[in-house]
C-alpha cells in the first residue's frame, strides 16, 4: 500500500512539475552573456517540493501511513533593477498539493502537518509591494497569504505542526491554502518599530475557496472582509542584548456567524501575542551556534469559535553537532482550550500537542527532517485515544 501511494504521488501532475522544475533550473543557469541576462537581473525564481511521509503509530482515528507532497514555485520581480522603479517588488506564487490528508488518520484539531489538505492546484499569491518615504511606509496590494505579514513566529517556522506557525484561534485567517485579495499598509516610525494594518477578502466564511479564486470576490457585493492590525518592536544583537521581536495584534471579521446557541452574531473578533527571542549565541569560526525560542497566545470569542484560548512555545538549537551549524533541533508544545459553550462539539476541554524534530541540511538543495508528535485529546473527542505520529519530511529546494 505504501509503495503504491508513493508511486502515485511521485507521478502526480508530472508534466506540470517537470515543466516548472526544468524552467527554474534552466533559468538559474543563465549567465551574463546570454540575451536573457536583463531578465535574470530583475527576476528571481525560488521553488521547493515538500514530501511528507507520516505514520500514526497509535490512537487517533486509525493507524495508517499517509504520503503527500506540496510543490511551491515563486517568481519575484525586482522592479528597481533596469525598470527604474525603486523599492518595488512584484511576486507570483504557484502551489500544487497532492496525496493523502494525514489529519484524517489522527483526527487532531491543530493539524499535525502544516501542508495537510485536500488536493489542489492554485495561483496562491499575486501581489505588488512598494516602500515610500525612505522606507517609512510600505504598501502591498494583491492576493497574499496573511501569515507572511501578521501573527507569524520567526523561530516557530521550522516546526511541522500548523499551530506553531499561527494561532488557531484566528479561525478565519486567509492563509494556506486560501490566501486572499488584500490591501496592506505598514509604517515604520523607527527602524525597529512597526504598525501594520490589512484588509482581506473574507468570503471564505461564505463558503468560497479564495485559494482557487482570483480577485473578483473582493469587489463583489455583498462581500465580507477580514481586518487585522499588529504593532510590534524588534531588537538586534548588540551591547550584550540578544535579538528578539514582540508583536501584538487584533482582528475582526465582518461576516455573520451562527453562534453555538443558534443565534446570529454580526461579526467576530480576537487578538494575539507573538514573541521571538534569541537566548544564547556562540561564535564558532565564521558562523554561530544559537538557541532561539518563541511564544504565542491567541484568543477568540467562544460563542462562535471552537477554540477560545491557545498557547504555544518552543525552542530551537542551531548547530548541535560540530561542523553542522545549519542543522536544527527543535522541541515545542501547543495547546488549545475549546469553547465550553453547549453545542461547540468538544467533549474534552483541551487538546495538547508536543513536537520534537531534527533538521538535517545536507546542502542548499536537500533537507531531511524526522519529526515526532504526541497529541493528547485529539479534537477534544473522548472516543479518540491519544495519538503518536511520526513524520519524515524531505524538502527539495531549487
Summarize the structure.
This protein has 398 residues and is mainly β. 10% of the residues lie in helices and 51% in strands.
Give an overview in words.
- The protein is mainly β.
- It has one domain (2-397): Porin.
- The chain contains 5 helices and 16 strands.
- The protein has helices spanning 2-10, 14-28, 37-42, 103-106, 216-219; strands at 43-60, 65-78, 88-99, 120-132, 137-144, 180-187, 193-201, 225-235, 244-258, 264-284, 287-300, 307-318, 328-338, 350-363, 366-376, 385-397.
- Strands 1-2-3-4-5-6-7-8-9-10-11-12-13-14-15-16 form a 16-stranded antiparallel barrel.
- A hairpin with a 6-residue loop joins strand 11 and strand 12.
- It starts with a helix and ends with a strand.
Task: Evaluate the radius of gyration.
Answer: 22 Å
Name given to the CATH architecture: Beta Barrel
**In this structure, how is the largest beta sheet organized?**
16 strands, antiparallel, barrel
Shape: globular
Structural class: mainly beta
Number of E-type strands: 16
Proportion in β-strands: over 45%
Runs in which pLDDT lies below 50 for 5 or more consecutive residues are: none
Number of domains: 1
SSE pattern: HHHEEEHEEEEHEEEEEEEEE
Question: According to CATH, what is the topology?
Answer: Porin
pLDDT average, as an integer? 88
Give the helix level as a range of percent. Answer: under 10%
Major sheet: arrangement of strands: 1-2-3-4-5-6-7-8-9-10-11-12-13-14-15-16
CATH class: Mainly Beta
- Rounded to the nearest angstrom, the distance between the terminal CA atoms is 30 Å
Figure out the total of helices. Answer: 5
The CATH superfamily is identified as Carbohydrate-selective porin OprB
